[in-house]
Amino acid sequence: MTVEPQTRTTDREDIAKRLLRSSAKASFDPLVEIDWDAPVDPDRYAIRPERISLYGTELWESLTEEQRKELSRQEIASVASIGIWFETILMQMLVRHAYDRDPTSNHVQYAYTEVADECRHSVMFAKLLGKLDAPYYRLDPVAHFLGKVFKTISNGPLTFSGALFVEEILDQLQREIMADEELEPLTRAVSRIHVVEEARHMRYAREEFARDWNKRGPVVQHYSRIMLSLVVYYSATRLINPAVYKRVGLDPREARKAARRNPHWIDTKTWAARKVVDTLDRAGAISGPGRYFWRKAGLLGRRGASAPTTAGPEAQRA
Q: What GO molecular function annotations does the UniProt record carry, in alphabetical order (predicted)?
C-alpha cells in the first residue's frame, strides 16, 4: 500500500537542513528557561480535569477537590515517567539509525541534534517529578523488558512510527496544557518547551517513516504492523501507573479497572492519538491482527460511539 499525498516526503537532506536551522533558532535549556525555584501551586490542576483518567466515574465523585488536584499532578508525573522511558529508547534507536550513515549529511546531523534534545527533555521531566513530589513511576517488568527488546530489534519503520506515536500523544496533551492559563505554571512551562522542540522531531519521524515504509516488502510491513501494535498497546495502557491512585487514598486495582472502563478516558486517548492514527492508518500500518491491539488500547474510539471532536471532553465545561 502506498502512502497517500499528505504523508509524501520532501528531499531528505533539504528537510534536515531546515530542521537544523530551526533547532539553532528555537532550542531551549530547561534548566535555565524554567523557574525551578517557584513553588507548585496546590490550588491549581496540573492538567485539565476532563483529561484525568477517573474523570466522570463514581471514584472521581468520591474525591475532594484537593485530592483531584493532587491526582492531576501524579498523573502528569506518570505521563512524564513514560516520556523518560520512551525517550531513552528513542535515543538509542536514533544512534543506531545514524551508525551506518554518513555523519557529514544533514540527515544524520539532525539525528544527533534530536538525541541532544531528548537528553534535555529527559532531565526536564525528571526535575518535574521532583517538583510535583512524585516518584519515578517505573513500568511493570513485562513492559520494561519489551522496551529493551523493541530498541534492539527495531527496524526503520518501527523506530519512526513508534517515535511518532509517543510524541504525538504527548504533543496533543501538552498543547492543551500550555494554552490553559488556569493550570499549574510549571506544567505549562514544561509543555511549552516540549511542544516547540517535538514539532521538529515529529516532522523528522513522519517523513522518515513514510520514506522507509514504502520501500519495505509485505513480510516486513506485516511484521512491523504487529510489533508496532504491541508497542502502542503497552505504551497507551501504561500512561497512568496504578500507583498514582494510592497517592490520593484510592485502591489501585479498583481505580485502574474504573479508568479502563471510563468512556471519558477512552475518548481522551482517542482524541490524543487521532493525528498519528490518521497518518499511520492511511499508510496501511494499522491493519490486520495489529488493529485489535490499537482498539484494545482505547485509541480507535469506543464501539458505537461517535468520533470525538478536536475539542475533546473539555468542551463539557462550557
A: oxidoreductase activity
The total domain count for the chain is 1
What the block records as the C-alpha cell of 106 is 544533514
How buried is residue 6: exposed, middle or buried, by Cβ count under 10 Å (0-12/13-18/19+)?
exposed
Give the rounded percent of residues in the chain with a pLDDT score beyond 70: 92
pLDDT at 215: 92
pLDDT 10s digits, 149-165: 998 889 999 999 999 99
**From CA 231, how far away is CA 3, in angstroms rounded?**
22
Domain assignment of residue 317, yes or no: no
Q: How many CB atoms lie within 10 A of CB 263?
A: 14
Domain at 211, CATH number: 1.10.620.20
Model confidence at 302, pLDDT cuts 50, 70, 90, reads confident
- Asked if residue 5 belongs to a domain, the reply is no
Tens-place pLDDT, residues 26-68: 999 999 999 999 999 999 999 999 999 999 999 999 999 999 9
| Calculated CA dihedral for residues 42, 235, 216, 115, nearest 10 degrees | 40
Indicate if the alpha-carbon torsion angle 15, 21, 24, 27 is positive or negative: negative
Q: Is residue 150 part of a domain?
A: yes
Q: Which domain holds residue 146?
A: 11-305
**H/E stretch holding 76:** helix 65-99
User: What torsion do the CA atoms of 36, 27, 98, 216 make, to the nearest 10 degrees?
Assistant: 100
